[in-house]
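Postdoc handover notes: sequence design on the structure in folder B. Input tokens:
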């Protein structure tokens, strides 16, 4: 495009002051929220919309209809991400992404993910109604399988070019069922690599989400400005001993794999709590073989996870756990193997986004505080790709992934207004 034409396009851009008075429509947002919550509604008052299930597909169809009814352009990609786009006058302008996910965990809450997508749609309506030309395209996006029913952060991995055929053959569960579910949703497993966008085509990514913790409640703040999303590693730790008769084997000859594993679990919790401030350790699964009450356990396999916001500390924690596992194995004459089965590096949020969110909250007279996300989010994948930021709103009692998940509507509205003004901040500050 010739420079003169670009200049003409830019002259079509309104001044940011024209947007200062804008606010989201809380009732309109609530109406969408209530409608969406009926899809996959559970008797306990939550939702079950597992990625690529009938309920998820119904939610996606509902969302596409909402986007179309509002006059936005529906867009989808080869990873099944579904978007609505509000175009600006300059076709060469970059796109500012706002979004989250419409899928849920089994018997989950109504707010997780849904709030971010619906707030993004509401922000686009406000910007459209303002009828002032923007310097960026604005796109609201629903990312496929954020929750990892099949493959966690599937859609955001796809958009950032971090999805390959291997991810389709490494599903949580049955790979052929995953391929079938993708195909049924109109996603061709062999084409998922084509979902990658050009990072230069993006002006940034902002995600509004419930906190799912209690940092904001404790700080008495409405708005959380996420500084980091925690990194996490999953380790499979296998203690090997020797099976034997539980009654007749002499004490000094027992090589009980489960005793070594039990010692490790207790010591690991103490180690991480005492030595790694802000570090998290969890052992969520034990498989014991042969698994009989009258046989000394020959093998104990633990699936453990550790989390930290600083990448080098996370690596250090993994090494410390490996060393501890060896020490515990030695005490019971066992051998031990440690394999890392998953790793997601910590993701710092973009300073530009952090500043935009802080400024938006200050302008709206909302109390904000810097917070860390101990849960994974799509913003984590976007962080290494473009400027990414997250806004948290309080979760009552920190309850989440549960039908009792609750966020006061005035807090959702406050978060949506911060999303609106942080988006404008990013759009005009470029
Ligand atoms: Zn979520």
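Designed sequence:
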């Amino acid at each position: 495009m010739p420079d003169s034409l670009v200049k003409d396009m830019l002259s079509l851009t309104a001044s940011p002051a024209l947007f200062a008075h804008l606010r989201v429509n809380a009732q309109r947002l609530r109406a969408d929220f209530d409608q969406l919550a009926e899809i996959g509604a559970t008797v306990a008052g939550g939702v079950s919309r597992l990625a690529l299930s009938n309920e998820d597909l119904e939610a996606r169809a509902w969302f596409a209809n909402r986007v179309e009814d509002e006059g936005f352009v529906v867009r989808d990609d080869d990873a099944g991400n579904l978007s609505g786009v509000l175009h600006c006058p300059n076709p060469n302008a970059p796109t500012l992404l706002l979004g989250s996910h419409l899928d849920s965990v089994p018997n989950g809450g109504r707010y997780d993910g849904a709030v971010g997508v619906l707030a993004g749609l509401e922000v686009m309506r406000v910007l459209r109604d303002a009828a002032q030309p923007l310097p960026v395209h604005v796109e609201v996006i629903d990312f496929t399988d954020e929750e990892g029913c099949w493959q966690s952060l599937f859609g955001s991995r796809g958009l950032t070019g971090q999805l390959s055929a291997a991810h389709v053959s490494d599903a949580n569960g049955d790979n052929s069922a995953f391929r079938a579910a993708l195909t049924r949703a109109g996603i061709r497993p062999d084409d998922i690599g084509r979902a990658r966008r050009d990072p230069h085509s993006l002006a940034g990514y902002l995600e509004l989400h419930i906190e799912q913790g209690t940092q904001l409640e404790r700080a008495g703040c409405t708005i959380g400005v996420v500084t980091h999303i925690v990194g996490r590693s999953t380790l499979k730790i296998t203690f090997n001993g020797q099976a034997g008769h539980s009654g007749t084997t002499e004490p000094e000859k027992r090589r009980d794999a489960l005793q070594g594993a039990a010692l490790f679990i207790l010591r690991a919790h103490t180690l991480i709590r005492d030595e790694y401030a802000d570090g998290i350790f969890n052992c969520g699964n034990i498989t014991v073989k042969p698994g009989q009450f009258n046989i000394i356990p020959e093998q104990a396999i633990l699936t453990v996870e550790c989390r930290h916001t600083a990448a080098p500390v996370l690596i250090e924690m993994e090494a410390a756990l490996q060393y501890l596992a060896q020490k515990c194995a030695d005490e019971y004459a066992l051998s031990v193997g440690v394999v890392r089965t998953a790793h997601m590096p910590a993701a710092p949020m973009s300073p530009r986004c952090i500043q935009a969110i802080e400024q938006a909250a200050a302008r709206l007279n909302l109390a904000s505080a810097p917070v860390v996300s101990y849960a994974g989010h799509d913003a984590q994948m976007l962080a290494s790709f473009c400027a990414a930021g997250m806004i948290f709103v309080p979760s009552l009692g920190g309850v989440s992934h549960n039908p009792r998940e609750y966020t006061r509507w005035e807090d959702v509205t406050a978060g949506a207004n911060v999303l609106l003004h942080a988006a404008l901040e990013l759009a005009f500050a470029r």
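Context for whoever picks this up: The radius of gyration is 24 Å. Don't rerun without checking with the PI first.
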